[in-house]
Structure formats: structure tokens, C-alpha cells
Description:
There is one protein chain. This protein is of the alpha+beta class. It has four helices and 20 strands. Strands 1, 2, 3, 4, 5, 6, 7, 8, 9, 10, 11, 12 and 13 form a 13-stranded mixed β-sheet that branches. A hairpin with a 3-residue loop joins strand 6 and strand 7. The N terminus is likely disordered.
Amino acid sequence: LQRFRQHAAEPHLFKVPEKPAPSRRKALRRSLIAVAVGIAALVLIWNYRSTPAPAREMVFQTKAGQQKKYSLPDGSSILLNSSSTVTIAAGFNERHRDIYLSGEGYFEVAPNAQQPFIVHTHTIFIRVLGTVFNVKAYPNDTVTATSLLQGAIKVYANKNVAGVWLPKEGLLLSANQKLQVLKGTATKAITPLSSTAPRNYQVSPLANDVTLNTVVETDWTRGRLSFNDMPFDRIALELERWYGVKIRFEDEQLKQSRFVATFDKENIDQVLRALQATTSFNYRKTDMDSTIILY
């Protein structure tokens, strides 16, 4: 009892903690708000950085004698042959998967059933979902060719170009098939065996090189230059792109000479000498611009 009285006489030992002063409560509230705002800002910055920016138009080009491989945002890839240009339209892999090719490209397309991959050229466009194929569409060539190695593709005529007579519903290609489309009225129409109506396209099997066990249409992707019963004037265009030279014919009849050949690491002189072994012609080089004249 005496001890209790003594404690009662000292009330400061039983004091209840006082509430923080109003100024301290305000300061604490401000600190909490500042922390919350900081966390929100960090979240916004993280989301901004982790969200890809809208795709802009991209242009890939190769020079004469050059091949380059490019990877696309959707996981597809393109190997461009010499003197070629491919334009990737803005919004690729977001709103569409459209590209525009001038030249030659070897495509490995990532599958996407909801968003078809479309290759546009001057004369045709190709619609695919996921496959491996080659497109050859140089502006100064008389033929646009599509070679399918895997999967299936559908090819349509470009409505803005006259003289391309593909079916309106498109032409379906299966693996190991090639489509060749002749441009406009500058070339002769092809008459199919099953119809008397002329047309300017042809579907045929891919050409296989039995010796090398390769597909001739895609030999260029392995650094080889192949001609399969090709006329000399078309070969000359191939040589110009491959070696970065200019070729001119003085003998017009030479243009129709046809060759079957494959070259690996030969230079331009070695190629021409090899062709001379099967067809009689000569050539010379000018000093002014290194043009090769065939006669």
C-alpha cells in the first residue's frame, strides 16, 4: 500500500503518450504523398520504356556484288541479293506486315495467322502466313519470279499495272513450285496446254542442280551464280549486278544464245571465258567506264 501511494504521488510515471502535433502530422502526410507520387512516376517510366515505340518506315539496300541479311521486328528475316531495295512500311508488325521489294530477296517468314505477311513488287504481290520463298523482281528484268521452298503462298496481280493476267482470286503455289510472270506487252504470251487462251505467266517445278544437290533459283544465297537455260541478255543483267560492271552487246544475235552453268568464286573474266567454251563470241573492256562489250 505504501508503494502504491508513492507511485500515485508521482503521476508523471503513468503519462499516456501524447498525439503528434498537427504540424508533425502534416509533414508525415506530405512525405507519404511524395513517396506515392514517386512510385507512380517510376511505374509510368518503366511502362514507357518497356513499350516499343511505333515502328517507322525502314529501308534496306544492297549495292552491286553485295548480299545482306536483315531481321524484322516480327521474327522474319530477309536475305537481299545485290542491287536490291526493300522498304518496311510504317506500323509493321503492329497494324500489318507489308513490305515493298525492288530486286531479289530470300524470305523466311515467322508464322502469324492473324496478320499475313505481304510482299509487294511492281507487277505482283505475294500473301503468306509463314513460309520460305524467294522473290526476284528487278525493275529492268522482263520476268518477275517467285520460288516457293516451304509452305504455301498466294500470288495476285498488281491492279495498278496493265498486262498482268493472273486470276482475280490469286494463284496458289505449293512447295517446290515457281511462278514466272512476264511484264506487259514487251514479251510474248505463254499459251497453256489446257487452254487456247494466252497468258503471260507460267507455273513450273523448281530447277534442281543434281550435281550440287541444290535449288538453282536460290543458289545465290550460297554465293553461287547459276544459269538454267538462260538467254545471254538476261545473263548479262545478272553479271552486271553480281560484279558491278556494265555489259553491252554489239552482236544482237548473241542475246538469244542460251547457257546452263554454275559459278562459285570465279571473277568476271573467268565467267566469260567459260561461256566462250560453248558459244563463239569475243569481248573487250573499255578504259573509260569499264564497260564490257560482247561481239
